[in-house]
Fold EF hand.
Amino acid sequence: MKKPLILISLFFITLAQHSHACSQISPETAFIISNDPNQDGKLSPKEWQNAQIDRYFVAFRLGNLRDFKRLDKNKNGFLSHRELANKVRYERDPCADWEETMQKMSEQSQNQQ
C-alpha cells in the first residue's frame, strides 16, 4: 500500500516541477518595471535619473542624461526595453532560488522512501 502512494506522490512532485517552472522576464524589462512609477512601460528622463540598480548589472551610467540620449535610439525622449536590450543583466538569476527549492523538495521526497 505504501509503494503506490509513494509513486503517486513522486508523480505529482515531478508534474509540479514542470508545470510551475520559474519563468523570468528579460532583465531590461524587469529593470524598467522596477523603475517606472507611472507604469507606462518606458523610462522618462526623470525616471532615469531616479532609477535604482539594486539587482542589476548595467552597461551605462545610470542617471547620466548623455547616456540616456545615446540609448534613446528612436529619439522619442523615452527608453524602452528594446533600447536597453543587452545592456542590463540580473545580478542573480531570479529563478535560482526556485530551482534550489525544487531540488531540495525532490531530495527530501527521495529520502522519505
Summary: DSSP finds five helices and two strands in the chain. Residues 27-99 form a domain with the Recoverin; domain 1 fold (CATH 1.10.238). The mean pLDDT is 82. The two ends are 13 Å apart (CA to CA).
